[in-house]
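tl;dr need the bound structure. longer version: we got a ligand (adenosine monophosphate) that a collaborator sent over and nobodys looked at where it sits. i said id run it. heres the input, straight from their email, havent touched it
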Amino acid sequence: MNDPTSKGVRLVVFGRQGAGKGTQATRLATNYGIPHISTGDMLRAAVKDGTAFGMRAKEYMDAGQLLPDDIMLGIIEERFGEPDAVGGWLLDGFPRTPGQAADLQRLVSQTGMDAAVNLEVPEEVVVERISSRRVCNECGTIYSVSDSSGATQKCAKCGGVVEQRADDTEEAVRKRLAIYNEQTAPLLDWFRAEGLLLEVDGVGDPDEISAGIIAEIDERI
Ligand code: AMP
């Protein structure tokens, strides 16, 4: 059987906030036995730890703004240097700007990449999804609630508090979507030109969506 990890699978997942990027990224990383490198999760962990860096990051995040490229490059370079990332990785939330895309191209000049998955979901659908999104503040499990009052509940997996992310307010979400359209969506052109882009319809059953993505990636590696 094909052992993808021996080759070192390197994937990037794109998608507007609320496109199901986190869910699909987790499944793909598990399937290929590679670390799921989510810059948003890393930054939220720093915020939770209350470090000076975390407090600074929080200001950008709560305002729905992007952190500067040089800070993000430092985070990614450090993470790529960890032993588990030598045999491949999955990037979720990076690159997000033309500067970050140029940094990534430089970082992978020796190894290359295998695919960039773009989960396409219409803007109205993601606004609706995000307003009902709740996240466990302990283990990060994502829930969807029909009650959008902001009331908290307990995580079924770990008992942690399930709550709305501070940057999931409608104002911050609209700002993040505008930034995505302006800064991140144009990056897809480069991945398309390199023959790396997999366009995926992100509306539908998450199991079927991940099975489809895995089948396409398996054909390429
Ligand atoms: P996410 O969970 O990917 O939506 O990220 C949450 C927030 O973290 C973003 O709105 C940004 O403030 C920050 N962030 C995450 N990844 C990046 C990145 N690659 N560049 C700049 N800021 C980022």
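gonna send this back to them w/ a short note. The mean pLDDT is 90.
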